[in-house]
Amino acid sequence: MSLTTALPLIGTSPATARPKTPRSAGRRTVRAVSTVVTVLVSMVAALAIVLAVAGRMSGGQATVFGHPVMSMISGSMTGTINTGDLFVDDQLTATQAQDLHPGQVITFREQPGSTTLITHRIVAVETIGGAVNYVTKGDANNAADATPRPASDVVGLYRFSIPRGAYVLAALRQPKVIGMLLGSVVLFFLAGSLFSAANGRKDQDSTNA
Asked: Are 87 and 98 members of one domain?
């Protein structure tokens, strides 16, 4: 059995892997952080644009893609929907509004024809003369609401909430904030391109050296 060893060509030296330096590791960290921040800022900016484009007012009620969207401004539902939360309801037809049951959280008009809305939980259902009424109660309240709510006043069925979303939405509605977010995305992309170009030039100089 014969053993052979490959010899390097004249004028060359065996290739050796360059050890990873702390500087290269730092560059990768900066790139990763920059990418994450860019993605997050882009998502927030996109959300602001979507809400601005898709959101509209229907009969005084804000909706997004057909779903009523509201801000909780009281503490009556604390534990389920906290003050400052943004929550989304499913829109109900007149027929659906008459077929609800205890335990469900609904949004209804304070009075027939009122633009003031209340979101409480159904604790009992009453049918009087064929008309469906709901006895409601705030989760944080000690007693049920004094007046049963007719099914005709129900405008939505609670679906989910976004913690502190009302505060964020209020800020995103400001044109200056949207402009700053979009500007931040552009600056991040420009900074990333410049950073990559600078690193490429350094790597080229190191290779030539």
From this structure: yes
The amino acid at 61: Q
Looking at the structure, tell me whether residues 92 and 74 fall in a common domain: yes
Task: Provide the whole-model pTM.
Answer: 0.61
Residue type, 180: M
Range of the domain at 40: 31-65+165-202
Same domain, 61 and 87: no
Same domain membership, residue 157 and residue 72: yes
pLDDT value of position 10: 43
Looking at the structure, tell me whether residues 100 and 151 fall in a common domain: yes
Q: 100 near 151, Cβ under 8 Å?
A: yes
Kindly report, residue by residue over 125-175, the tens digit of the pLDDT: 999 888 999 999 999 999 999 999 999 999 999 999 989 888 877 776 677
192, 137 in Cβ contact below 8 A?
Answer: no
User: SS3 string of the chain?
Assistant: CCCCCCCCCCCCCCCCCCCCCHHHHHHHHHHHHHHHHHHHHHHHHHHHHHHHHHEEEECCEEEECCEEEEECCCCCCCCCCCCCCEEEEEECCHHHHCCCCCCCEEEEECCCCCCCEEEEEEEEEEEECCEEEEEEECCCCCCCCCCCEEHHHEEEEEEEEECCHHHHHHHHCCHHHHHHHHHHHHHHHHHHHHHHHHHHHHHHHHHHC
